[in-house]
């Protein structure tokens, strides 16, 4: 008994020490992050910008906003109601009206201050949750994560910093580690906690989840906690007491309002749970369990009705079941998970898959924890198969939430190898996990650092206060990842290569003594620069960067 207590104490102290070390590593890597994915900037913009989620090159608002303002909402409530009913029943008319406004759109000069306003909460617009709600209703994501970003941004009004969302993700990462601890304790496997924490917390997968300035670390927490509650229900012979019922409802609603992919994992875990309950003839428990979840779903949809159109009628919903190359997508996701949790090696990955497959078959035939492994493994497997089919891109973000569960599953699976003592198998696995963690930290980097973006920021700092022309392949959404540098310039103009001719009648470029131009590397820079010289009347070009500095764009100074 004394030895057991001492072991538990060692695990407890080791857990907290590991949390501190992991936090330091996370802080180190966030300090290395130089740029942002456009979706990351969107996290700030749609959380902060007042009733608009995109920074438009054509003005403060998009055509949708002007249709609402000029053609639908009226001082007369009855007229507004009639307009809403008309456009609701005539979506084509709404689309045509939107196109009318689009025809008149032309890129205009916007200010660096406006760029800053896009990603920061102004002092007089703090805690504007109505705006956040509106922006997300127009997008394809639920609002909870964005509201948290708005809260932190409101406290730091006027400040744009990568540490705003990082702080939110760190809180949920630490909370997730505590949930992992609770799961291992509930499973009476505290002795494996340190293996799980090291394998997950020091992996490039976990670090990338925290660094990526989106809702996926928050989603991971709710997925883990939902799993924990279901483990509690199973350990309690599938009885759901009042306290667990409330926790299950709250977790389900909050998880749903964080990311719709939460529903996919929940669906498969719920199916597994119901099968277990049917097997044990727990019919009254099934009724109570399903009733709790249905009530949770109704509450979630009632809070955010737009979720119905997002999930069933948007390009990110069930209608996205149309991707080709399904087997290749599954393989790429498997490679993503393996390379960010263990090591980036195809040979080792295939060897590990063979070993894991053998162990799964053995455990399902003879293993004492067969039901537990099914509970952990089946939802993760089915979730991954569905994500491989519906995800718009093949990216780690879409499977981040199942990474810690995958680790728990593998640790339980590989610490009970046939003909090897449990103590020896744990020691071997610990050695392998430590080796993989050290290798990743020394020779791999997490995703989403965008180190090449340092070039853009350095040039914007050097030429702070200049006017700036950004020439990219897309001015509708992708250009927003340039917002951090745009903040440093006096005025900014965002163009595609097809819009260069607009500079011919542009007064600003004709009277500016000099200005900075950023050109996408896939374009014919020489042709574009010659046109700019012709239209602006300037005569000299200084190249400020090369493809070696940033492979996506090259900077030039135009002057006399």
Key words describing this protein structure:
mainly alpha; six-stranded mixed sheet; disordered N terminus
How much of the sequence lies in strands comes to 5-15%
Structural class: mainly alpha
Which overall shape is indicated by the principal axes computed on the Cα atoms?
Answer: globular
Helix-residue proportion = 55-70%
What is the gyration radius calculated from CA atoms? 27 Å
Poorly predicted spans: 1-5
Report the total helices.
25
Please give the oligomerization state of what you see: single chain
Distance N to C terminus: 84 Å
User: Which strand order spans the largest sheet, edge to edge or round the barrel?
Assistant: 1-3-2-4-6-5
Overall number of structural domains: 3
Largest sheet: 6 strands, mixed
List how many beta strands DSSP finds: 6
What do you see in this structure?
By secondary structure, the chain is mostly helical. The chain folds into 3 domains: 117 residues, no CATH class; 279 residues, no CATH class; 109 residues. The protein has 25 helices and 6 strands. Strands 1-3-2-4-6-5 form a 6-stranded mixed β-sheet. Helix 9 packs antiparallel against helix 10. The longest helix is centred in the N-terminal third of the chain and has 31 residues. The termini are far apart. The N terminus is likely disordered.
Question: Can you describe this structure in just a few lines?
Answer:
The protein has 560 residues and is mainly alpha-helical. Helices cover 63% and strands 5% of the residues.
């Amino acid at each position: 008994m004394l030895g057991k207590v001492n072991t538990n104490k060692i695990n407890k102290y080791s857990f907290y020490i590991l949390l501190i070390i992991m936090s330091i590593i996370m802080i180190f890597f966030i300090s290395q992050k130089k740029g942002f994915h456009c979706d990351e900037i969107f996290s700030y913009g749609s959380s902060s910008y007042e009733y608009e989620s995109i920074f438009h090159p054509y003005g403060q608002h998009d055509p949708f906003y002007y249709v609402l303002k000029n053609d639908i909402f009226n001082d007369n409530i009855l007229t507004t109601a009639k307009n809403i009913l008309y456009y609701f029943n005539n979506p084509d008319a709404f689309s045509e009206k939107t196109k009318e406004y689009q025809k008149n759109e032309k890129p205009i000069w916007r200010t660096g201050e406006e760029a800053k306003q896009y990603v920061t909460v102004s002092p007089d617009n703090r805690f504007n949750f109505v705006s956040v709600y509106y922006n997300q209703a127009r997008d394809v994501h639920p609002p909870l994560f964005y509201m948290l970003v708005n809260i932190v941004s409101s406290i730091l009004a006027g400040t744009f910093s990568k540490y705003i969302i990082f702080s939110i993700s760190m809180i949920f990462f630490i909370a997730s580690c505590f949930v992992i601890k609770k799961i291992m304790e509930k499973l009476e496997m505290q002795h494996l906690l340190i293996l799980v924490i090291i394998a997950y917390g020091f992996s490039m997968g976990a670090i990338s989840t925290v660094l990526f300035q989106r809702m996926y670390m928050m989603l991971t927490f709710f997925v883990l906690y939902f799993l924990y509650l279901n483990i509690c229900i199973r350990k309690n012979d599938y009885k759901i007491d009042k306290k667990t019922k409330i926790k299950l409802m709250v977790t389900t609603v909050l998880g749903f309002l964080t990311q719709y992919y939460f529903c996919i994992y929940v669906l498969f875990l719920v199916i597994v749970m119901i099968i277990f309950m049917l097997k044990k003839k727990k019919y009254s428990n099934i009724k109570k369990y399903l009733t709790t979840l249905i009530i949770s779903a109704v509450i979630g949809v009632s809070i955010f009705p737009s979720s119905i159109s997002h999930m069933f009628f948007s390009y990110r919903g069930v209608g996205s079941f149309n991707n080709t190359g399904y087997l290749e997508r599954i393989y790429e996701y498997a490679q993503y998970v393996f390379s960010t949790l263990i090591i980036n090696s195809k040979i080792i990955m295939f060897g590990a898959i063979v070993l894991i497959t053998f162990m799964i078959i053995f455990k399902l035939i003879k293993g004492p924890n067969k039901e537990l492994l099914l509970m952990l493994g089946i939802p993760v497997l089915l979730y991954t198969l569905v994500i491989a089919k519906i995800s718009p891109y093949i990216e780690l973000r879409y499977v981040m939430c199942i990474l810690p569960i995958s680790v728990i599953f593998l640790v339980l699976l590989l610490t009970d190898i046939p003909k090897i003592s449990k103590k020896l198998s744990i020691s071997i696995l610990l050695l392998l996990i430590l080796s993989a963690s050290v290798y990743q930290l020394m020779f791999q980097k997490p995703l989403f650092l965008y180190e090449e973006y340092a070039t853009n920021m350095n040039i914007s700092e050097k030429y702070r206060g200049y006017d700036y022309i950004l020439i990219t392949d897309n001015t509708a959404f992708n250009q927003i990842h340039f917002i951090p540098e745009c903040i440093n310039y006096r005025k900014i103009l965002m163009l595609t290569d097809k819009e260069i001719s607009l500079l011919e009648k542009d007064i600003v470029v004709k009277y500016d003594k000099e200005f900075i131009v950023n050109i996408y590397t896939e374009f014919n820079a020489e042709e574009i620069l010659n046109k700019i010289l012709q239209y602006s009347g300037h005569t000299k070009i200084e190249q400020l960067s090369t493809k070696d500095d940033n492979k996506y764009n090259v900077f030039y100074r135009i002057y006399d």
